[in-house]
Amino acid sequence: MSKTTEQVRKSLAKRYRAERRFKAFGVGAIGFGLLALVLLFTDIIGKGHSAFFETYVKMEVTFDQDTLDISDVRDEEQLNFANYDGVIRNALREEFPSASGRQEKRELYSLISTGAGYELRDLLKDDPSLMGKSITLWLLADDDVDVYVKSAQDDRLESRLSDNQKSWIESLEAQDRVELQWNQSLFTHGDSREPELAGIWGAVTGSFFTMLVTLILSFPIGVAAAIYLEEFAPKNKFTDFIEVNINNLAAVPSIIFGLLGLAVIIGLFGLPRSVPVVGGIVLTLMTLPTIIISSRAAIKAVPPSIREAAMGLGASKMQVVLHHVLPLALPGMLTGAIIGMAQALGETAPLLMIGMVAFIVDVPGGPLDPSTVLPVQIYLWADSPEQSFVALTSAAIMVLLSFLIAMNTLAVFLRKRLERRW
Amino acid sequence: MDTAEKFDDKAPGNMKLADQIEGEQAMDETIRYPDQTVGTPYVDNPKMRMRDVEVFYGEKQAIHGVSLDIGKNEVVALIGPSGCGKSTFLRCLNRMNDTIDICQVKGNLHLEDQDLYDPKLDVVELRARVGMVFQKPNPFPKSIYDNVAYGPRIHGLANKKYDLDEIVETSLQKAGLWNEVKDRLHSPGTGLSGGQQQRLCIARTIAVSPEVVLMDEPCSALDPIATAKIEELIAELSESYTIAIVTHSMQQAARVSNRTAYFHLGRLVEMNDTDTVFTKPEHDLTEAYITGRFG
Ligand SMILES: Nc1ncnc2c1ncn2[C@@H]1O[C@H](COP(=O)(O)OP(=O)(O)OP(=O)(O)O)[C@@H](O)[C@H]1O
Ligand SMILES: [Mg+2]
Fold first, then answer.
1. CA–CA separation, A262 vs A277, rounded Å?
2. Does residue A256 have a pLDDT over 60?
3. Does the reported pTM lie above 0.90?
4. Judged by CB atoms within 8 Å, which residues 302-361 of A form the interface with B?
5. What's the CATH number of domain B35-291, 3.30.379.10, 3.40.1280.10, 3.90.420.10, 3.40.50.300?
6. Binding pocket residue ranges, ligand 1, CB within 6 Å
7. Is residue B35 scored above 70 in pLDDT?
8. Is the pLDDT of residue B9 over 80?
9. 8 A C-beta contact, residue B230 and residue B176
């Protein structure tokens, strides 16, 4: 064996060792990342899954005309303001006649959610012939009852419920009249002080309008800026300066954009607080650098030979850009935009500054209605004392995460689909 | 003059060259001439007339006072060692150098009566008259049809779909590609073989009916069979177009061109009939190059 071969063998062994070390390191890094992800998901899903169901109690209620205080069942006004709670109270008193005294009665009434009355109202509106009749219904339970029903035997001792309430629930449970049902209100309601009535729909639509404004503003502006900087701007000190600043902008803490929005957009231009338009403008400032940087990279990646070919045929600069560069760079630009939007969707701090943290019950109907957004809703709920909000917070996080996963999947999918336009 | 002596010792063949310049100058310096082109760079009634062309990349001068004519329906081959400025010169002829910020062109360049560097001239018009085929086949990532139709479309040469179809068909026929692609006009141009792609690029260039076609090493990425096809094509095209072709293959230059220009370090050393250049070159540098002593 020659000396060189010997030398090569030795160094080969060393090289292989280095390679294996590097691989092990990479696997370790990915393993660590996955572990963190699994921990996050198990924690969130463990806490949040129960919020997707809520407790209902089966009751026999009588639409008693006197209690409801309705003289004409066709009168919308009367139907809206009738005393449905009274009907429910009657039902509860009938069920548990032993409850006496103000304190006990209040305890009894608080078994059922204040929102249960709306259910009765809707029923009566749909079918006025129910008036005077008795029907058996599943009524939404109060959040404390919900927590109690969902908790394990041992944990029940720590419940906030009184002994009376516990015994009532247990007697209902014994009769199979307590049930967990799909939490419809989580996906249809806005925020509420009552956890069993609170939903994320208000925040989801708020987020949707905010993202819409962000996308409409940031994508065209970002792409136009990128095209100008790559294709038309002279290369000089000034454009270098702009480039440095764009990169800087990407690293500015987002809360500063919020302060800017508060001072300029709300303070100077007098736009209202808490509205998605302002949120969208602020998030545009935040998303722009991401879009500009990724769009420029996408434009740079267009092969120069394509430009030359078009120019050699006499295409003007604008035609080269519109006919060749832009279509080829678009997948990269879209990917960048989606990633920027995903960042914006999860952004909280700047929106707190512009007042999107207000307690808003109504689902916004447009980008000029006061609203909140998903991450802010999560922040609000995480800050609420009621125990039920813990599960709701995690449920909202799960929804936010699934939006993010959907957006990032879309980005990957788009890139794969559009990479080659054939 | 140490180096010159050493060089002469080892390469006696170069003695004559070195002697031709003032006596004992170093070899490196001898190569930096001549200021005078030998042969017949000028023709009567030229299609393109270039005088004293100088090209600078920033501070660096890449072309030194090149003057030559390209006659009507003539195929002119530009040859020379790598880096001697062939591509640079060729790209002046349709102002492709405009795209390089640091590139500066001086001198008189005319296409018939049109001054190429007239500030009032629109390069779009010029490039419609002087087309270019590049070294690497570079079809657009579009269909074969759209590749060929692109030029006529942007110049508005065809108003009706029917006219455009006809231009596409004749261009592909002239480029000798029609029979191979007529059933797949709407499949991607990037899906063709390298040689087919290059012929597609030629079809794309001639679709706008240019007067002059510039080709920068159009066969260097192709195998011998595809090369032969392109060479045939050049011979046919020369009936209706004026062609300037840069090539590294001397056989190719000999096969396709009427006149050959030999460039050396940014200077035009010799321009003559192709036969003359390859059989009895007038200049020693040309001889050295075609006999393979350097390049
Ligand atoms: N974009 C550029 N910027 C700066 N210098 C350049 C540029 N393009 C070419 N040059 C220089 O100009 C000189 C001529 O280059 P050119 O490309 O014209 O040579 P060539 O004869 O085509 O060579 P080859 O046969 O290798 O293609 C070279 O010295 C090269 O370094
Ligand atoms: Mg070249």
1. 13
2. yes
3. no
4. 303, 305-316, 319, 323-324, 328
5. 3.40.50.300
6. B 57, 62, 80, 82-88, 100
7. no
8. no
9. no
